[in-house]
Automatic annotation (TrEMBL):
The lineage of its organism: Bacteria, Pseudomonadati, Pseudomonadota, Alphaproteobacteria, Hyphomicrobiales. Keywords: ATP-binding, Kinase, Nucleotide-binding, Phosphoprotein, Plasmid, Transferase. It comes from Rhizobium tumorigenes. It comes from the Bacteria. It catalyses: ATP + protein L-histidine = ADP + protein N-phospho-L-histidine. Residues 202-287 form the Signal transduction histidine kinase HWE region domain. This is histidine kinase.
Length: 392
């Protein structure tokens, strides 16, 4: 709802300047002190009761007949009536427009506002058949800065509110705003501690998994190696791939950017194996996010293919190149590893642990398929993995 109130009607309804000219009663500072102590106590024992009690105290200490909070919802650009007490309590949960209400005027100026008979200027008040001789409104700010709404107090008679009432209501609102600021800070600290605890548990879980994976890899490499030198070389490459994958996953998690992009992972794993020109490796593929478990497995697969390409294939010869491309087709990730301009390759007589690792990971672990072709131009590997397993 977006309507305008004429200047003449606005000046008739908003009479804040009259507050200074009305006779005031002597301030009861003891009563104010007791009220603030009440609110402070509830902050410790029952924080959820602070706002309802704040509204009650404001109504009692200013002699109003009804009171409530209008909390601003930025997304809807409207106020929500909450914690109402007194004669208007039945309107709990009602909403009013930001740019067509006394509460909106109050947030515009961020000082106490006095209005009389708002039903004269605002049709939604008249439509609700509410007669309000006077309403005192005070902005509610968290920490004295962030305006979240208004406290409003209604009177059943004309010329009721004074500057003293405005001062008392403002003091209460200021105290509650500070209390809410403290509570928000405590909540942020609690969330930060919970996040740190979650990260610690997650890292413990990762370390355990890493040790288990390393132990299995060590045993398999030992059985498949003919010499300690061969074992050291193979194990070093596999651990390096694991390290790269875990470093990338941890970096993205700490940056809260989600899981790992396949291209970033591929570049990181291939980089240590490229010793020649920068055009030895071509990587082409759409952006695809890999979950942590999948990133670790793909890192090991790519490392095995790259290691073999350095030892026997295109990456071990001048002018040799590897093309790595992928696409999503029919719910599957289709990845092609194609070597070119390398030495003549033939199908190995004995299947080593590295090839077994690749096959086990793709076929058994991810329910995919793997196809090798030993062409005159170089090795070609076609890998198909269900996309759902990459994201899980």
């Amino acid at each position: 709802m977006s309507q305008a109130v004429s200047e003449q009607l606005f000046s008739e309804v908003f009479i804040t300047d009259q507050l200074e000219h009305r006779r005031i009663e002597r301030a009861d500072f003891l009563k104010e002190k007791i009220a603030l102590q009440d609110l402070a106590s509830r902050m410790v024992t029952d924080p959820d009761a602070v706002l309802p009690r704040f509204v009650e105290l404001a109504m009692q200490m200013t002699g109003g007949t009804s009171a409530g909070l209008s909390i601003f919802d930025q997304n809807a650009s409207e106020f929500k009536w909450l914690h109402l007490c007194g004669e208007l309590a039945a309107f709990e949960g009602a909403s009013t427009p930001r740019n067509y209400s006394p509460c909106g005027v109050t947030l515009d100026v961020l000082v106490p506002v006095l209005c009389r008979h708002p039903e004269w200027a605002y049709s939604w008040v008249a439509d609700a058949q509410i007669a309000l001789p006077e309403v005192l409104l005070v902005p509610l700010l968290i920490g004295g800065k962030e305006a979240i709404g208004t406290l409003w107090i209604a009177s059943g008679v004309d010329e009721h509110f004074t500057s003293e009432h405005a001062r008392v209501a403002s003091e209460l609102a200021t105290f509650v705003g500070i209390a809410m600021h403290v509570k928000r800070g405590e909540e942020r600290i609690r969330q930060a501690l919970e996040a740190q605890e979650t990260l610690t548990r997650e890292m413990n879980h990762r370390v355990k998994n890493l040790f288990a994976l390393t132990e299995g890899m060590l045993r398999q490499t030992l059985r498949a190696s003919d010499s300690k030198e061969e074992m050291a070389e193979a194990l070093s490459g596999r651990l390096r791939a694991l390290s790269s994958a875990y470093s990338l996953v941890l970096r993205d998690n700490l940056a809260e950017e989600g899981d790992l992009d396949l291209r970033t992972l591929t570049e990181a794993i291939l980089s240590p194996h490229v010793h020649g020109a920068s055009d030895q490796v071509f990587i082409v593929g759409d952006r695809l996010i890999c979950a942590e478990r999948a990133a670790t497995s793909i890192a090991l697969i790519l490392n095995e293919l790259a290691t073999n390409a350095v030892k026997y294939g295109a990456l071990g010869s001048d002018g040799g190149a590897v093309s790595i491309t992928w696409r999503i087709l029919d719910g599957n990730l289709e990845l092609d590893w194609v070597e070119s301009n390398g030495p003549l390759v033939t199908e190995p007589i004995r299947v080593g642990f590295g090839n077994k690792l690749v096959e086990t990971t793709i076929v058994r672990q991810y329910r995919g398929s793997l196809q090798y072709q030993w062409l005159s131009s170089g090795l070609s590997v076609a890998i198909t993995i269900p996309k759902s397993t990459i994201l899980a």
